[in-house]
Amino acid sequence: MEAWERRRILAPAAATPVLALALAWAAWLAPLLLLPSSLAQLGPLPFNDAIQDAIVSARQTDGAALQSARRAAQSTIRRAQSIVGSAVSTVRDSDASVGDVTLALENAAAAVGEAAAAVDDVARLRDSTWCAVLRDLDLDSLPSPPDPSLVGHVLHRCGFVGSIHTVRDEYYERFRPVENEACNVLFPLVIVRPVSTRDVAIGVKVAREMRVEMSVRSGGHGHSCNSIKNASLHFDLRRLNRVDLQRSEYISVSLIQ
Known about the structure:
disordered N terminus
């Protein structure tokens, strides 16, 4: 087989996994870099001045570091996109040698790896400073259960987007009752109504860090009242009522025998 024939056969086959990796990586990357900069949007806090000063200081430091990491990641991503684009052009060039194609694909794979590492850095920094308010509260000194207004405030400042209801909220009683009236003598500390899986994750993290028991609303028919608990962070998931299906060219199929 002539060299040019081998090149035309091998080049597309070699390019396929790199292009698939690049597309999958781009789809995974987008939500990480579009995260709301909630740390940079924190307003005045209704607590004592010492706590407020500590939180504002941490917010400024962590917010600047996170933004710097995001900018670095975005720059690395743009470079990777350019290199991957050049590699695709090289693969499609009928005059390119096998060595040129191989080198282009190796450069593309390396660039995608660098971009993925930059995204991981952003994710690690985001997770380590995901909520400056929580980090700077003296959690060991909080009463058990903590004040519901404080829990609601922390949820909001940590980026919870859905609605948050405490007993002082006019909508609290609208969302508290369950089907079994015998269970309606139980009063959650805070009721949250997430609008995304990210909201759920934030709620779980806050509940764990602030040592608040969790409960999840269900049909509410059970006699044991497991779907609602006193002094809990109560998740009402009725707004998560949709499944989004995305068309993909890459489908994995397995058979169960």
